[in-house]
Amino acid sequence: MGFGDLKSAAGLRVLNDFLADKSYIEGYVPSQADIAVFEAIAAPPPADLFHALRWYNHIKSYEKQKASLPGVKKALGKYGPADVEDTTGAATDSKDDDDIDLFGSDDEEESEEAKKLREERLAQYETKKSKKPAVVAKSSILLDVKPWDDETDMAKLEECVRSIQADGLVWGSSKLVPVGYGIKKLQIQCVVEDDKVGTDMLEERITAFEDYVQSMDVAAFNKI
């Protein structure tokens, strides 16, 4: 197992191919495995090895936090594709049965520890993501509320409109706009949460004040 010499073009090509379908050297979060391989590279991979370059730039962004990344850093030859010979010189003597047993035991312990830390970090990420407030879709609506005639008490009409209260509805500024023959309409702004308040509901509630309101129209509707 290994990448070969990561300071050579051949080693970087092996790394690039290895990362073609992976985000990290091991697992699904940055770990000490990424740091071990990153530190073995002399310079950023060339642009044509875009998988390796993407990974290199991403791991470089963790430079200040690298000590806190999960896992235990192993010999460089412990990472990479299984069919590539380790030429780093870090591998132990395969003829020493005691050393083989010892490193086999360490690998198991390190694997379990890395797995535990990775699961803890994933759980923390999921918890943090679940607590992130969802974006609430809102709209700003300008309403035209028309009275029956010029004798309608417009102050009372506005009072009736503003008396409508609902979760996700906030009334804003208003003004009276002449429409002719001495009649003025109420033009009033409101902000609504789209999944709680709609224009149909506003029209139904406003026109229910039939002693004052002849009709209601939407003059402007803008997403916020």
TrEMBL record:
Catalytic subunit of the guanine nucleotide exchange factor (GEF) (eEF1B subcomplex) of the eukaryotic elongation factor 1 complex (eEF1). Stimulates the exchange of GDP for GTP on elongation factor 1A (eEF1A), probably by displacing GDP from the nucleotide binding pocket in eEF1A. Residues 95-112 have a biased composition (Acidic residues). It comes from Dicrurus megarhynchus. Residues 102-129 form the Elongation factor 1 beta central acidic region eukaryote domain. The keyword Protein biosynthesis applies. This is Elongation factor 1-beta. Belongs to the EF-1-beta/EF-1-delta family. One of its GO terms (cellular component) is cytosol. InterPro entries: eEF-1beta-like_sf (IPR036219), EF-1_beta_acid_region_euk (IPR018940), EF1B_bsu/dsu (IPR049720), EF1B_bsu/dsu_GNE (IPR014038), Glutathione-S-Trfase_C_sf (IPR036282), Transl_elong_EF1B/ribsomal_bS6 (IPR014717), Transl_elong_EF1B_B/D_CS (IPR001326). EF-1 is composed of 4 subunits: alpha, beta (alpha subunit of the eEF1B subcomplex), delta (beta subunit of the eEF1B subcomplex), and gamma (gamma subunit of the eEF1B subcomplex). Interacts with elongation factor EEF1A1. It comes from the Eukaryota. Residues 83-115 are annotated as: Disordered. PANTHER family: EF-HAND AND COILED-COIL DOMAIN-CONTAINING FAMILY MEMBER, ELONGATION FACTOR 1-BETA. Pfam families: EF-1_beta_acid (PF10587), EF1_GNE (PF00736). Keywords: Elongation factor, Protein biosynthesis. Residues 138-224 form the Translation elongation factor EF1B beta/delta subunit guanine nucleotide exchange domain. One of its GO terms (molecular function) is guanyl-nucleotide exchange factor activity. The lineage of its organism: Eukaryota, Metazoa, Chordata, Craniata, Vertebrata. SUPFAM superfamilies: eEF-1beta-like, GST C-terminal domain-like.
